[in-house]
Amino acid sequence: MENYLKIAIDTDKLEEYFITYTQKPYILNNKGKNFFQFEAGKPISKPLGSLFVEFINLDFKNKDTFKDFVMKYLFIPLLQELFSNSLPKSVFYEKKYYKEPSDLQLFTVILSTDEIEEYYNRIYKKFFNELKSLQKEYIAIANLNHKNYALETLGSAVTLNNKNEKYYGLINGLCLSIDNLKINFDTENTFNNRKLAGLIPFYFSSSKFEDILIIILKELVTYKSSFRIQRCQNCGKYFIPKTAHPTLFCDKIYQNNSTCKQIGSELRHQKTLEKDSILQEYRKRYQNLASESSKSDNPIIRQMYEDYKREGSIMRRNYIKNKITEEKFKKWINKFYIESYL
Q1: Are 11 and 203 in contact (CB under 8 A)?
Q2: What is the spatial distance between Cα 176 and Cα 166, in angstroms, rounded to a whole number?
């Protein structure tokens, strides 16, 4: 009864295939209860490292997103571990529930809604802190934080010779902790995909989620020459850049169907401008003039406000584009104090 986590890796295309589970209604002659079958879905290719990035970006404070992640990836393996590799009597797994002989390669679990909730709560209680600690360790690796990684994972110092060996040093040391990883050659039956078996003759499996994360990193370091993990300067999420070219922003949708990469530079520039002391002074002077103009009957003050609006848009734009100096822009703003204008 090997209900392991399984991942197949295409090292040519740098893609990963990970088995996930979906819940489908299952009819049983048991009045008053609804049952669901946990079915291993046909894996869809994703860029290598997707599962790793999804895990380190997981918000442990959000109970719903954490539950979604566990139910999709880890519920069945953790359920088996929860009961010391012997599933509870309430789990149905008799042969008659399988459609074809090949399905026996995949273990089928059928539970009632009450049982799903009960077992999830038990998994949450037992494994939450362990997974949270695991995430912390791998974020340390993503950030190349040698000190945290060494103390919390290896318990010793990490010695690296040069910048190019950073990830190699960290991940090679991490590989020493792999205990349960296996290499399997029944790719077609396990992944229910003959075409995939022709491309990827073997896959990795383990009862430990940590082993799967390690092998993903190891394969990335081995086959992706430009491998690095970055944190998006816009949304704050971790990502693996597709190319070796410098980039500060990820390709995730941020707002209005635009990605961080598409709007990140503009937003970052806007945030920088918001902190610019000269532009702050420009906005403050505009607000004061608008207020004085609305309250005063003096035509000179109203004219000053109109001149500031008309000339100001040009001066501001030229300052932002570095066509005029800070000194010149400030000198122009100072002309529009009422005492100077009258």
Answers
A1: no
A2: 16
Phi/psi of residue 201, each to 5°?
Answer: -70, -20
Q: Are strands 182-184 and 203-206 parallel, antiparallel or unpaired?
A: antiparallel
Q: Which helix (H) or strand (E) holds 216?
A: helix 209-223
Question: pLDDT digits over 245-262, tens only?
Answer: 888 889 887 877 788 888
Distance CA 290, CA 302 (A): 9
Instruction: Report, in this order, helix, strand and coil percent for the chain, each rounded to 5.
Output: 55, 15, 35
Q: Torsion-angle region of residue 192: left (phi > 0), alpha (psi -120 to 50) or beta? A: left
Element (H, E) at 48: none
Instruction: Write out pLDDT tens, residues 27-62.
Output: 876 667 888 888 877 788 999 999 999 999 999 999
Query: Bridge partners of 160?
Result: none
Cβ-contact 134, 210 below 8 angstroms: yes
Residues 6+ apart with CB under 8 A from 90: 111, 112, 115
The answer to whether residues 197 and 185 touch, using CB atoms and an 8 Å cutoff, is no
252 membership: H or E segment, kind and range: none
Q: Report the distance separating Cα 291 and Cα 50, nearest Å.
A: 54
Predicted structure pTM score: 0.70
